[in-house]
Automatic annotation (TrEMBL):
InterPro entries found in the cross-reference section: Uncharacterised_YxcD
Pfam family, one: DUF2653
Name of the protein: DUF2653 domain-containing protein
Native species: Paenibacillus donghaensis
Length: 96
């Protein structure tokens, strides 16, 4: 099995691309802040055109799956994506 590790910057890019497409705005109009909390897990706050929206872990995984396909040509599924936090948040994508 091959594993691809996405940095925090790549996860942010994935969320920016995903939200820009969903909201029909330019990628440059999307701002993202990732976070991890012991009680709530992984999340992101997204700002688009002055409005704030929170994304939960499943939303982040969805954005990562789409990013893997569009940027790496790798078809991944939910069970292939593992979010981890050490010094920063990373995503490990393992596909057969």
């Amino acid at each position: 099995m091959a594993a691809t590790v996405l940095s925090m910057d790549e996860i942010i890019n994935a969320v920016c691309l995903h939200m820009a497409e969903r909201k029909a705005v330019k990628v440059t109009e999307v701002q993202v802040e990732l976070s991890w909390d012991e009680d709530t897990g992984y999340s992101a706050e997204v700002w688009i055109q002055g409005r704030s929206q929170y994304l939960v872990e499943s939303n982040l995984v969805e954005a990562i799956i789409r990013y893997m396909l569009s940027e790496y040509g790798i078809r991944a599924f939910r069970e292939d994506v593992l979010l981890e936090v050490d010094e920063e948040i990373t995503a490990v994508v393992t596909v057969a």
